[in-house]
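Might you be able to review the protein record set out just below?
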Amino acid sequence: MLFVGCANRPAIREVILTDLDDSAVSIKPSQNALTVIYFLSPECPLCINYTLAMRELEQEFASDSIKFYGVYSNEWFSANEVNEFAIKYELGFEMLLDNGNQLADVLGATVTPEVFVLNSDSEVLYSGKIDNWVNDLGKKRLEVSEHYLKSALLAWRDEETIDPKRTQPKGCLIE
């Protein structure tokens, strides 16, 4: 079960999402595996700018029992829009619609792109930014010096402590 601050919130396994074929699905972390959830928007410039980094991370960790998902909260994104976004930017991981922002509410996601890393018990091991490229909206570094998500995945793979466990994400608001 996922315990995220409020006893009235459902566990992540109880949240029903929709895949791009309009079938009901839920995210069920696997034994001895990690689940990476990106909250995305096809309209968010930062999401577009991070597609290369997301593709590279999925490719790098493909054999490490890590499952990646792109989750689109807000009811105004259609399956067709999400599919076009995934195809255009060559995102190979599963895309899911979070109508009613159920998963965003359970995890406390507030912006896109925001990432959550869950263990097989649905506990959040890391959440926040993919890296430190953007520290404030409109202010980008010339070079990334902290790869937060990659460091968290490497630490998990090497059975080390994940540090930091949380960073403050910047991006487009999930409404």
User: Anything to note?
Assistant: The first strand starts at residue 17 and ends at 19. Residues 1-8 have pLDDT under 50 and may be disordered. Residues 47 and 123 are 25 Å apart (CA to CA).
